[in-house]
Amino acid sequence: MEMETDNQTEYYYGDEYEEEIDLESLHILSIVLYSIAFILGTSGNGLVIWITGFKMKTSVNTIWFLNLAMADFIFTFFLPLSIAYTAMGFVWSFGWFLCKLNSFIMVLTMYSSVFILTAISIDRCLSVLAAVWAQNHRTPKKAWFTCLILWALAGVFSSPYLKYRDVIKVNETMQRCSYSFGNDTDLRAFRHKALTITRFLFSFLLPIIIIISCYTAIGYRYSTIHRKRSFKPFKVIVAVIVTFFICWIPFHIFQILELKVTGDDSSLYKVILVGMPVATSIAFFNSCLNPILYVCMCQDFKEKLKKSFLKVFESAFTEETTLYHLSSRRSTVQMESLVGGQKIEGTNPEPK
C-alpha cells in the first residue's frame, strides 16, 4: 500500500477503502471551501493590497501586511486549478508545466506567509525590548529588503517541488499531478520523508517556537513595567498568527501521521484517508481569513466601517506608534541617566 499526500489537494490513495468511506462527500466539501476561499481570498486580499500599497502611507507595518496579503492573494489566485482537479476526480488535464507551477506556488506562499509572520513577531519584540534602537533603525526600506530575503528563502525551500512534482500516468485514460521520486523504493521513501519533515520543521515547528518566544519576552517586559500596559497594539497580528497556526496544525499532524503508515496499518490509513481532505481544506481556507480579521478586530469597527474601508485598515495596521510608547519613556530615562540628563536623538517621551 503506497500513499502520497501533500498540500496540493491530492489525497488519492487507492480503491481499497473507497466503498467503506464516503470520499465523494469530502471532495464536495473541499470544492465548496476552496471556492469560498477563492472568492473571498482574491477579493479581500486584493483590497488589502490596493489599500496598503496605494492608499496608505508607507510604513514598516503596511509593508509587512502588504506582503502577507500578496502571498495569500497569489495562493487563492491559483485555487481554481485545485478546484478543477478535485472536481474531475483528481485527473490532471493541465499539462506538466502547470502541475509543477501550481505545486511550487502553493508551497512558496505557505513558506512566505509563515516567514513573514515570524518576522513581524521579531519586529514587535524589538519594538518593545529595544524601543530606542527600533525607532532609529526600523525603516520601510529595510522592511522591504527583509521581505525580499524572506521570499527568496521561501523560494529555496519550495524549489524541490519544481523538481519532484510531475504528471504521472496512472492508466491509458488517467493521469495525476503527483510526486515523481524515481523508481527506487527506498530512495522514493527517503525523499518523501525528507520533504515532509523539512516542511514541518521550517514552516511550522521552528517558526512557532520563535513566535512564542517573542511574545513571551514581550509579556515578561510588560510584567516589569509598573504601569499597567495594554496588549491592544498586538491584537491584530496575534489574531492572524493564531488563526494561521490553528488552520495549519491539522494538516501537519496528518502529514506526520502519513509517514507512519505501513501496509498492515489499515486503521491509521482510514483515519488519514478521511482526515487529510478536511485538514487540507482548513489549511487552504486560512488564505481568505486575514482581511476579515483586519476589519473585525479594528478599533471602533462599526463606526469606521460606515466611513470607509481605508479608515478600517489604517486603524488595523497603524500600531507602531503605540508600540514605541509602551517602553519609550523608560528607555529615555535610562539613556538620560547615562549622559547626564541629555536626551538621545530619536527617543520620544511618553505623551502626558
From TrEMBL:
It is found in: Membrane. SUPFAM superfamilies: Family A G protein-coupled receptor-like. Keywords: Chemotaxis, Disulfide bond, G-protein coupled receptor, Membrane, Receptor, Transducer, Transmembrane, Transmembrane helix. It is a multi-pass membrane protein. The chain crosses the membrane at residues 26-51, 63-92, 104-122, 143-162, 200-222, 234-251, 271-297. One of its GO terms (molecular function) is G protein-coupled receptor activity. Belongs to the G-protein coupled receptor 1 family. This is Chemokine-like receptor 1. It comes from Acipenser oxyrinchus oxyrinchus.
